[in-house]
Design brief:
Length: 117
């Protein structure tokens, strides 16, 4: 059973920073990609950032230049450093893991990020 444990969400003022962590455990083989998505009320879930096995990264437009994703392969953990946060970054942030040759797709329970103006 694969488990994703997210941490680091919370309340921050505009212009501040937060660091999200997502630790994966269980029988993970043929890791493909791990990343973060977010969903604000009334909106669809959107890509924030993701990182592949080879270290390639992709960012959603809203994250470019402000957020940085990184991975500690030994710990099966990804981090999302979020700087210069804006009220529009307020959302539930979900960790996502794809492995097994793109066969398996897991989601974390989500962590709330709230940015006050």
């Amino acid at each position: 059973q694969v488990r994703l444990v997210e941490s680091g969400g919370g309340l921050v003022q505009a212009g501040g920073s937060l660091r999200l962590s997502c630790a994966a455990s269980g029988s993970i083989f043929n890791f493909n990609v791990m990343g973060w998505y977010r969903q604000a009320p009334g909106n669809e879930r959107e890509l924030v950032a993701r990182i592949t096995r080879g270290g390639s990264t992709n960012y959603g437009d809203s994250a470019k230049g402000r957020f940085t994703i990184s991975r500690d392969a030994a710990k099966n953990t990804v981090y999302l450093q979020m700087n210069s946060l804006k009220p529009e970054d307020t959302a539930v942030y979900y960790c996502n893991l794809v492995y097994g040759g793109w066969q398996y797709n897991y989601w974390g329970q989500g962590t709330q990020v709230t940015v006050s103006s």
